[in-house]
Amino acid sequence: MRHYECLTNDSSLSSAVFVPFYAGFDARRFWGYNVKQRDELGEDLARWLKGRPEWRRMDGRDHFFVAGRVGRDFRRLSDQDSDWGNKLMRLPEFENMTMLSIETNSWSNEFAVPYPSYFHPKREIDVQRWQRQVRMNQRRYLYSFIGAPRPNLKESIRGEIINLTGKNPRITHQVNNFFISIASSSHQTLNFTKNAKESDEIGPKQPGEEEETGTIAHSSHQTLNLTENAKESDEIGPKQPEKEEETGTIASSSHQTLNLTENAKDSAEIGPKQLEEEEKTDTIAPSSHQTLNLNENAKERDEIRLKQPKEEETDTCAGRYVYMHNLPSIFNDDIIKNCRTLMKWFNMCPFMVNSGLGPQVLESDKATTRVLTPKTGSWYATNQFLLAVIFRERMKHYECLTNDSSLASAVYVPYYAGFDVGRYLWGYNVTVRDELAVKLARWLRERPEWNKMHGRDHFFVTGRIGWDFRRMFENDADWGSKLMTLPEISNMTMLAIETTAWTNEIAIPYPTYFHPKSLTEIQRWQRKVKKVKRRYLFSFVGGSRPQLDGSIRGEIINQCLASHGKCKFLDCKVSDCDNPVKIMEVFQESVFCLQPPGDSYTRRSIFDSILAGCIPVFFHPGSGYNQYIWYFPKNYTKFSVYIPEKEMKNGTVSLKKLLSRIDKERISRMRNEVVKIIPKIIYTKPGLVGPEKVNDAFDIAVDKILERVAMVKRMMEEGKDLESEYSQTRDLQKLSENHIK
């Protein structure tokens, strides 16, 4: 733990608290002693912990300790001296904590971790060499037993086992029979990969209890942060974030679980071509005949690199494999070839270049250099509707992509649903709008992958809001397609830029303008936006919505214009709001960025402002808190300001006065939280590996999908009702002002 990369001595940052109490040694030394002596140190520790500020946060439920003894040694039920063990785990404080021990007794706050073996390698390659050696070893015995009889234990079977083996346990060389201990099956649940194709050898007896240094007097109540990726691995001692930056790069939650063997240090070789800094790009100047550079050999490109586990290496992708359907081109590439027809009043062709990232922002003037970091080649005029194209390109480079669907834990469907419906939203009948969706449902249903979970392990991505796919009736005047109401698609999960409160819709971030190539580049940007001088107290980038009843944008604009220079208003009716430099300049110069609902609850501006280190101000929970649950902190007050929409409507709130009352110290804390979110809400360029890789919006989405599918699979195996995850009933409460999580 002293070498854990995310150890911190700032307990406010920590997601868990490790208590380095040597409970096993404390219990072991008191053979023949009364219960008072056996319990003394445990009670002292409980008292000490309860007095710590870290305890008050969750009353110890985020605390854990490790013991090299079995759980029953700490579960004495009475205070008789003749009873075994101490009562550590029955103390009220310790009942709230989690114990990791070599054997549990089925209490829900105990988890078994492996006994230590004799082998403590330094590198992954040492492990692989050892694995090859033990696979190739010639084995003289059919089975073996190392141990002694237990005649004093009435139910022990050891004597019978020893009698069966005899003095010479050499039996036969039959290779089809084998002996496996089942002792692990009920305990080591936290430590085995889901697809353990090899039996985990139950290792030799652990060595005698070796001397360990340190006493409780030196216990410093170390804390650790399971969600923060440290920039550098520490030498011995806790890690303290640098004052000048907070990287905020988070590892995916599905791989943060303690002791999971699928948490691999080294990525497997990926193999696909990375987007290089010097690659050919297009400028932001619009062109009526720009060629698309992403679709020509789509079917081959969908199989650029497909990982297959090699028998001789540790499978770091166990439980993480994704299979990508090689869809007929009518469902994706053919749609965007006609890029002029994708939106009625907007030419999407200029934004299709660079694999959907759009034209690169070049170092054209001083403003660009001052506002962005154009020399990195990581800034693009990215359009929000291109999310599906960007996601598909990233999936082609996903380290655990496989063309063997039997290995896959999830199935990705690269259907451009948003572009499909977008071209038919105005002036077309429902038959035309639904045609391709109905064909896709039929195609998927006939695939062998469908039969495994009837589509509940399938997902797709769209750069439009969920409402565009939820038409309830067959009236041509009604909006959108009926994609998500089709029986097949309703079994799938949709990742969209905004959801409509159905349980199989999950919101993921709008794409921003920044698509970096490395963790170092992200950290450099984070330092820049933390230090930038902000001229305006608050700002609003957008336009009024006079045609929308109940819109508060008009009131916001009026207050901004009357703020005597405290607010910056960039009117998108008269300004170029597709210019990344102009947008990012306003957000960088603002302390707070106003994010009122527009045509829908959410805005791309939310993510552009966070990227600029600007604290978002929300007026409706459906704009952020109840949408991006995989990405935003649960405690929304840490990174944002919430002003109920109704208070703006009735004129009881002065934005200038309210925001001016927030002190500088709190603003600094909030900005730090905003900056920490940045790595989670951007889409990096494909192909990042090793120490420069960052878990970005794509990685988090894939990991969370894998978690979701695993949960649904368990529910199916247990015969549970799946209505909670694939309900066709809309939970409007999720988008109400009374439902802020």
TrEMBL record:
Predominant cellular place of this UniProt entry's protein: Golgi
Keyword Secreted: no
Compositionally biased spans, kind Basic and acidic residues: 229-242
Pfam families named in the record: Exostosin_GT47
Region of interest called Disordered, as start-end residue ranges on this chain: 196-302
Location in the cell: Golgi apparatus membrane
GO molecular function terms listed in the Swiss-Prot or TrEMBL record: glycosyltransferase activity
Any one cellular-component term (Gene Ontology): Golgi membrane
Keywords assigned by UniProt, alphabetized: Glycosyltransferase, Golgi apparatus, Signal-anchor, Transferase, Transmembrane
InterPro entries, A to Z: Exostosin, Exostosin_GT47
Positions with biased composition (Polar residues): 216-228, 249-262, 284-296
Its membrane topology: Single-pass type II membrane protein
Domain Exostosin GT47 residue range list: 5-173, 317-652
Entry's family note: Belongs to the glycosyltransferase 47 family.
Name of the protein this chain belongs to: Exostosin GT47 domain-containing protein
Organism from which the protein derives: Arabis alpina (Alpine rock-cress)
Lineage: Eukaryota, Viridiplantae, Streptophyta, Embryophyta, Tracheophyta
